[in-house]
Amino acid sequence: MKKGLKIVTIGGGSSYTPELVEGFIKRHHELPIKELWLVDIEEGKEKLEIVGAMAQRMVKAAGIECEVYLTLDRQKALKDADFVTTQLRVGHMEARIKDEMIPMKYGLIGQETNGAGGMLKAFRTIPVILEIVEEMKLFCPKAWLINFTNPAGMVTEAVLRYGMWEKVIGLCNVPIVAIKNESALLEKKESDLFFKFAGINHLHWHKIYQHDGQNITRQAINKLYGPDAKPEKIVANIKNMRFLHEQLTQLEMLPCPYHRYYYMTDAMIQEEIEEAQGEGTRGQVVKRLEESLFELYKDPNLDHKPVELEKRGGAYYSDAACEIINSIYNNKGTQMVVSTRNQGAISDLPAESAIEITSVITAHGAEPIHFGSFPPAQRGLLQLMKSMEELTIEAAVTGDYGTALQAFISNPLVQSGDSAKALLDELLDAHREYLPQFNR
Amino acid sequence: MKKGLKIVTIGGGSSYTPELVEGFIKRHHELPIKELWLVDIEEGKEKLEIVGAMAQRMVKAAGIECEVYLTLDRQKALKDADFVTTQLRVGHMEARIKDEMIPMKYGLIGQETNGAGGMLKAFRTIPVILEIVEEMKLFCPKAWLINFTNPAGMVTEAVLRYGMWEKVIGLCNVPIVAIKNESALLEKKESDLFFKFAGINHLHWHKIYQHDGQNITRQAINKLYGPDAKPEKIVANIKNMRFLHEQLTQLEMLPCPYHRYYYMTDAMIQEEIEEAQGEGTRGQVVKRLEESLFELYKDPNLDHKPVELEKRGGAYYSDAACEIINSIYNNKGTQMVVSTRNQGAISDLPAESAIEITSVITAHGAEPIHFGSFPPAQRGLLQLMKSMEELTIEAAVTGDYGTALQAFISNPLVQSGDSAKALLDELLDAHREYLPQFNR
Amino acid sequence: MKKGLKIVTIGGGSSYTPELVEGFIKRHHELPIKELWLVDIEEGKEKLEIVGAMAQRMVKAAGIECEVYLTLDRQKALKDADFVTTQLRVGHMEARIKDEMIPMKYGLIGQETNGAGGMLKAFRTIPVILEIVEEMKLFCPKAWLINFTNPAGMVTEAVLRYGMWEKVIGLCNVPIVAIKNESALLEKKESDLFFKFAGINHLHWHKIYQHDGQNITRQAINKLYGPDAKPEKIVANIKNMRFLHEQLTQLEMLPCPYHRYYYMTDAMIQEEIEEAQGEGTRGQVVKRLEESLFELYKDPNLDHKPVELEKRGGAYYSDAACEIINSIYNNKGTQMVVSTRNQGAISDLPAESAIEITSVITAHGAEPIHFGSFPPAQRGLLQLMKSMEELTIEAAVTGDYGTALQAFISNPLVQSGDSAKALLDELLDAHREYLPQFNR
Amino acid sequence: MKKGLKIVTIGGGSSYTPELVEGFIKRHHELPIKELWLVDIEEGKEKLEIVGAMAQRMVKAAGIECEVYLTLDRQKALKDADFVTTQLRVGHMEARIKDEMIPMKYGLIGQETNGAGGMLKAFRTIPVILEIVEEMKLFCPKAWLINFTNPAGMVTEAVLRYGMWEKVIGLCNVPIVAIKNESALLEKKESDLFFKFAGINHLHWHKIYQHDGQNITRQAINKLYGPDAKPEKIVANIKNMRFLHEQLTQLEMLPCPYHRYYYMTDAMIQEEIEEAQGEGTRGQVVKRLEESLFELYKDPNLDHKPVELEKRGGAYYSDAACEIINSIYNNKGTQMVVSTRNQGAISDLPAESAIEITSVITAHGAEPIHFGSFPPAQRGLLQLMKSMEELTIEAAVTGDYGTALQAFISNPLVQSGDSAKALLDELLDAHREYLPQFNR
């Protein structure tokens, strides 16, 4: 095994980068990274320089042997890479804000990864990721792609199905946050509980088992959502609204925070509209947050990740990416919840699909812990959403209008008929610049 | 094979009965029915007597050897039956009207077999059908059950899964009407085309093949829903609203009329509200229609099916039931679209499910023509709806509130969260009398 | 639909041709064939001329408007064909005799479609059929391929998987003979019974249902193989050896005659060896039969199919091919047992496999009547044999030695280890001339 | 979590017990066993006393707080147990020797877990294990059953399917030995390689991945079975015969040692016959080995596991059982290859089957690392063997003769037809005393 690893981070100018760098630093004794390449595009040059300089300070302060390179030349960066991470945002925060605002005009949820907004993000992002994959085939055919660009599940599936690239793992922080919060709530150490997650990105369920093998999911449901429950701490970017207790009792599994969009649609839209009228949409809030983060990063004396980064919503994300790389490199067998190919691990979904599932990360990549099949309440929604994802990915790749329309109609957070068509048309038009495939 | 068949029709006082009798008369040369038992309950006694007398006149006029019996004693009727048909309505037309009116208050579709109304109908009907199945086990264990009580698909699945009764076929006239209309539209004889249907009751798709093996579904889509299409003739009980042409082109299959509830939800609700404010809900219209039919049936000189019956919405239904019986009895191999057990004929749905599919009716019952799997646009909705059906059936059998709530939330025609709960509570209360399982 | 059909029969010089011609003649009122092209290769020229002249006499005697063409130019024949039938034998009867004799030296079964012989036949035949398919793509892309060349199941699967040609139906006379014999034995009309077959070519099972829907398979088992059973009449080319009654009772299905090779291997080998020492192998017997048939065909006064043809072993084959063509052309919905793509009709086998199953023949081709899954006793053998078929087909296409060896080891009628390798080597060598793919 | 664990070992008089005790001793710091109950039956009393006394000496020498109880009262032992291990042998070594000798008379393999012998062992063992499960339901309903009684896969499946007991894990040392030997051969640390096993007990395949994610299975095949390979070290109880290199190259997986019975049947039988004529059958050898082990155990000064035990053939078995218990108790996530319920982890086998697969052992038991589907060469044999197992288990439970016969005929190591029947009859007769279910 070669001694010094080369890591390439595409979208290196992201505000997340310091967490990633911190993650690499703290694992340096077992993960000997020699080169870290931060890559961005022309429009992101300024941010890349700010955050890149900070990364260089962090590495220097840590006193480890590792060079941080900044570049706009992606192909040069990819040459002989061992691991490539992607954390890019096509169209920047402005595109996100459109994804949030336009559906809201139609009385619909506007959100980065769910509903019409998530689909448009997929339309913009998937072609760029597939382009990167083609370059990886040429410049670093043995590298692993660790993606944490949203919509992470659809991106992973696109890489598998259309990119024909097997060495990919998709990553999301939602399960990590759930494990941390629920362990605390149950007053247990994380390592004493076994969490079994399965589903797709932003639409998964999980069960919890205790030390002696007992399934304690129902107790967790009662603690979290029962009559005496205290408000749950969840990921920063979605509202904490109490689930119906009778519904969760029937599910006998814990949903993910994003289930609120499907299980309490009306209340979520109303909340979102109020929020947009108050502090602004989540995109607008994050934009402000990022601006202040970059102000911090400019400080030439700052050489460690600032605590403010945790408010950004993606806490643990980058650290998890480091741990995946570490676990592959050292065949550690760490249990993590990641997006990977189904192959039948969830019997209810097509074998070629990407799913999000508790996996063991080995030298061979993500090995899903087998799940089997869901009861009907979970199954139907999951299958519907996967079919919506398939249509969305196909539309993103082909630019076919009918397929995009079908994807919209399939999405329970979008309406059907003429109103679906009007919304699709407006969104395609608003993002025209980033959707060449639809304008051919 | 015994010479004279005994047929039992439960809900014999229905306005459909004359079509059934006509169907038996015209097949008498190959289907030697000796006894036809029309069974109803106390509240239906008057209607049973009116329509029963008319049935007796019809048989007499036809000059065939067959006795028509009228009875309120179901068990006596079932004794040694060869075929049992069910066409009952628990709670009568009043219950249907509630199913239509209450959801409308919540801005939702109120319909006999779709949305909240269809689920309540299932809650009322399934326990009664399962009671009949238990009696069949005792009194006529070799008989076939031909069900055309709605929701026909869920009833069939309940009989298979919970009644543990294999000899059941569910029947609906929607595919029959489609075959007739589309053949006419394409200017072909029915026998020159091969129609391949698959899905579930009131949610199926089909393809059409021509004489030389060519798939002409796309031509049919264009003729029916293309820019120059003339308004399509569909089943009487749902509005004819034009599907989006781009959507159907992507589907490459023809949807069923009820797909309008899912593919153009808003427009359908608006239409329905207008209609309710005009001539009344469909239930109210049908109630008036039925009253005038029974006036006709009272005429002691009427001894044949009156043409007015066709407006009733269930045209061809009863005739199809006769043909199923005929095709089983004579191992004819007639192709019909029926509800039967999946066993893998549609790979996307559980093996134990009831599906609606083009089948060959043989001595062994309905043998589905294998379908395989759907593309994602059809697949997701179909799988969601099947999971909703499973939950609905389970709730109907167990009376479990959480399961009923989950069924509601799973249904795309019902909202989620608190509003789903409020609607469910109101409906359970309105139908309390017919839902003993929920009041235990 | 065009008025006059063009049929092309590849291997037209076969002794079966008169039955085919007879079949077309008797269906001429509904199947308007205008041109019948009999195609053969240089080595078969003489036979083609003899049987071709006879075909011309038959058509003339029948007084129908149809031209019979004889040619060695396959591509010319294929031009604009509507249906292509294949009944060829690569390497002629000499190759068959080698397939029979060589395995016998190793104490193994030597047979045309089972064991090592059948695999070698697949190695020789599949590349030729795939060549024909490529020509069909160019010269008659809308035609149907009706294959009755053995091994018919593997050939069909090769056409589907490697030829990427969907319009293919494989045909075998074994089920036809079983239906005829068992109906007679049960003293019923064929049309009064429903036979449900499923499996793969030469390895299928069936159930029988009676007029009133009752499963009478067990009665049939007792009549055929019970203590008082009279020897069963089966297809001419395999020995009639009594199955173990206890075994069939457990199966609750009727096996096909070829199951004897698997269910009573030792006895069959012994029988075969004795037979070879007596009248010669089946190939040798058939060779003599064919020679005397061709003597008959030379008679310029013979203008109808001679009764001697029925001894040939393929009785009903060609007639069934005519009926398939007729049923496609006229969308008749005839029930026939054919080889077609699985797509899930038998849940135990891969979706892309060819299976042999009761199907409805429509304008769209063979529509399998759904079967579902087998109990373990049938399932395991069926799955093993399908995997052996997959390996054999792959070896036939790629010429890969390891795959061929694996196919041999997978076959329960071949031994494993060094003896499998020795047998394979000897057979590849003996047929070297017809196996260019293995010599690259 | 309660402080002191109670472990019950059924078949406690086995010669393996010292390894088990050693395993518990060395894990005592994390696995606080307070009571170890060794249970045996009347006939095993003497051995129980010998080995039990030794176990007591070992515990005492280790200075840990743990009581070792010896008893013939199984129900008393089971009361409130936390873990139950089973290592029993119905009919003792004499029965094994019959299982080896009788098939050999028919020219067939005589072996403890494969072929006719393995099936008879299943017939004798399964009813006893199911009896234990029924007692566990009464006396220790929360306990885990760790089975290492052969045939371990069929026993596990019987417990799951017929015992309706989910908390069971089956264990075998074959994969452990393979991992150890192959790591050494490849000159790697075990922890640097990822071994992915899947299949069923004594019929599994595996792949090996290296540190950097590369699949090195082919290198391992070449090292083990290539032209320059040195003889491989395998489990003690089966002969080391070189696999065909071309075959393994095609498989692209490593087989298990028992595959020799299927991949080189003739050579194995010949070897076995020679061996039987020399030192005796494996059962006879083991019997002598055991006798000398018990002589050693009698030594009142012996208080640790003697090295001679490793020759016994079950090396690592008992230690692995300790590690499973440890990993469940401490939610350790250790990767082990165990028999557990499939649920779709191997797509080619029924969901309810027991499979043997690399799993993560957690608080929730064995969580299989998902495998997916096999290529045809592995798939067919695996499916055949699983169907044989299903039939064998069913016959063991029901005592149905036809099912037993079908199981025999399905087994590729048994012949078919009359000879299968004769062998079955002789074996049923020889073991009559232990097969009450067949004599009802």
Sheet bearing the most strands of chain A, described?
A: 6 strands, parallel
Structural class of chain A, by secondary structure, is alpha/beta
Global geometry of chain A: globular
Largest interface: A-B, 42 and 42 residues
Order of helices and strands of chain A: EHEHEHEHHEHEHEEHHEHHHHEEEHHH
Global Rg of chain A:
21 Å
Regions with little confidence, pLDDT below 50 for 5+ residues of chain A: none
User: In percent, how helical is the residue content of chain A?
Assistant: 40-55%
Count of helical segments of chain A?
16
Q: Whole-Å distance between the termini of chain A?
A: 46 Å
- Average pLDDT of chain A: 92
How is the quaternary structure best described? homotetramer
What fraction strand of chain A? 15-25%
Total E-strand runs of chain A: 12
Please state how the strands of the largest beta sheet of chain A are arranged side by side.
3-2-1-4-5-6
Site (Increases basicity of active site Tyr) (chains A, B, C, D): 112
Organism (chains A, B, C, D): Paenibacillus nuruki
Protein name (chains A, B, C, D): 6-phospho-beta-glucosidase
Cofactor (chains A, B, C, D): NAD(+)
Task: Give structural notes.
Chains A, B, C, D: It comes from Paenibacillus nuruki. Chains A, B, C, D: GO terms for molecular function: 6-phospho-beta-glucosidase activity; metal ion binding; oxidoreductase activity, acting on the CH-OH group of donors, NAD or NADP as acceptor. Chains A, B, C, D: Residues 197-414 form the Glycosyl hydrolase family 4 C-terminal domain. The structure is a homotetramer of 440-residue chains. Chain A is α/β, with parallel strands linked by helices and 440 residues long. Chain A has a domain at 378-438. The first copy, chain A, contains 16 helices and 12 strands. In chain A, the strands form 2 sheets. In chain A, strands 3-2-1-4-5-6 form a 6-stranded parallel β-sheet, sandwiched between helices. In chain A, a hairpin with a 2-residue loop joins strand 7 (194-200) and strand 8 (203-209). In chain A, helix 1 (17-26) runs parallel beside helix 2 (45-62) and helix 1 runs parallel beside helix 13 (317-329). The interface between A and B is large, with 42 and 42 residues.
